[in-house]
Amino acid sequence: MTDRPDTPENDTQWRTAGDRIQTLLDSCAAAGTAAHERAQQLVREVVGLYGAGLERIMQSLDDPGLAERLATDDLVASLLLVHGLHPHDVHRRVADALQRVRPYLGSHGGDVDLLEVTDTVVRLAFTGSCKSCPSSAVTLELAVQDAIRAAAPEICSIELVTNTKPGAVIAAESLLARVHSNGHDATSWHPVPELDVLAPGEVGGFLVDGTALLACRVGDQTFAYRDHCPMCDDTLAGAALSDALLRCPRCGTGFDVVRAGAGANGAHLDPLPLLRRDGVLSVALPCAVTEAMGASA
């Protein structure tokens, strides 16, 4: 995990501002086509007005340090991107995004090489030691895609290629074909501020959008997994953590939480992407899984 600039606690509400605006626009459609078009025009006028103001502010800055701080603030950066005012080019933004998630990838035994960035396409090669763990492949792919799309929304395609370097064992097919065939094509991020209260060595159970998960703190890093033991097919509630080893209280199997939940006989816990967004630890849940749980509730 890497430290991000401090932001006000209520900054997280702006993550969903676009969705709320779209919902309001859609509701205007019920009043007829004319009302809907007027609402859309109103939004365009407001966006244009604030965009013009932001442009003048950026043009007036003569302090490179201030421009840099603005560029690394999630909320401000997102507005600058909307109006094409971000001071960093797409290559710099993609590279910075990967650098922020690299410690997280390393905690799962993986890494990523940035091969090429064009105006709309990013080409990557993954390396690491998680080929035998499909859930880790899902975790890495989700974390990287989220980071890139947030930093460079103009990117239309993220292409993964097989890395031929010695020791490169995460192939593109293990990250894309396996991920998307399992229905993890889209994710929804959920802030879980309670995770920040975990003390080193502590394990906690949480229910996030209907999904039971287990979170544990090792040193200054927090890891999240689905609350399910693959060996005894039971809950991990009551599990104890010793160093980085999480032991199931029922079957006694130990899992290395720092290394993607690796256990005995090739068993793995199911890790969930956990990143700090707007200063708050947030977990990613595949939408397909979320919807299925909601339907079965």
UniProtKB/TrEMBL annotation:
GO biological process: iron-sulfur cluster assembly
Domain Rieske: 189-283
Keywords associated with the record: 2Fe-2S, Iron, Iron-sulfur, Metal-binding
InterPro entries, A to Z: FSCA_dom_sf (IPR034904), NIF_FeS_clus_asmbl_NifU_C (IPR001075), Rieske_2Fe-2S (IPR017941), Rieske_2Fe-2S_sf (IPR036922)
Tree of life domain: Bacteria
Segments traversing the membrane: none
Gene Ontology terms for molecular function: 2 iron, 2 sulfur cluster binding; iron ion binding; monooxygenase activity; oxidoreductase activity, acting on paired donors, with incorporation or reduction of molecular oxygen
Any one Pfam family match given in the protein's UniProt record, by short name: NifU
Role: May be involved in the formation or repair of [Fe-S] clusters present in iron-sulfur proteins.
Protein name per Swiss-Prot or TrEMBL: Rieske domain-containing protein
Native source organism of the sequence: Mycobacterium gastri
